[in-house]
Amino acid sequence: MGRIPEPGALKQQYGGAGISRIEAVPQPAAPAPDIGTLAEKYKTVGRAVTANRAPDLLVMVSLSMPREALLRLAEQAERTGATLVFRGLKGDSMVKMGEEIKSIVGDRNVSAVVHPPAFQQFSVTRVPVVVIARPDAGSVLDSGCSRADTFVKVSGDVSLDYALEYIERRSPAWADVARSFRTKIIRGIN
Q: Which residue ranges make up each domain of the chain?
């Protein structure tokens, strides 16, 4: 790169006084805001947004499950607005995974994601598992798991409506949320 030219050479090449002095740069009219104060302000804004969100209904699934079970869960997921959550890709290929999901979901309006951390977050070791999670379940502990009071789950090869009915009967704190999801299946509305 060479060395920086002498001020006289810069003046000759670029005109003017050569390199500007830092003191000559115009100063802002107002002082810069304190970044710590801004961060603190927006920390509470994020909480307000998640506090107003409804709980999510997730169905943790795998392509290794019987196809009939996947099709039944996809049909019920459309009615409830549930998201199908897969742990990984088929053959380490996004294209192959997309084709498989399309063959299960078909023309239904169903959300499906590949999200391995969710399996740790909700301590899922076998599928299918139905999870109802509050927005604050996303704030995980050091272990990568959500706090136990931020979600409820049911494991086993059962229909979505049965799992929701089970939560409604067995978990009073989650009964209203489970009932609202289950009503969508029973009535067949979105």
A: 54-187
CA distance 47 to 45: 5
Cα(134)–Cα(117) distance, integer angstroms: 16
Return the CATH number of the domain spanning residue range 54-187: 3.40.30
108 backbone φψ class: left, alpha, beta (φ>0; ψ -120 to 50)? beta
**Could you read off the pLDDT of 91-150 as tens digits, one per residue?**
999 999 999 999 999 999 999 999 999 999 999 999 999 999 999 998 889 898 999 999
pLDDT tens digits for range 39-64: 665 555 445 444 557 899 999 999 99
162 contacts 179 by C-beta, under 8 angstroms = no
CA 108 distance to own-chain centroid: 21
Tokens of 114: 């590949």
Question: Distance of alpha carbon 39 from its chain centroid, rounded?
Answer: 22
158-172 in b/e burial notation, b at 16+ Cβ within 10 A?
A: bbbbebbbbbbeeee
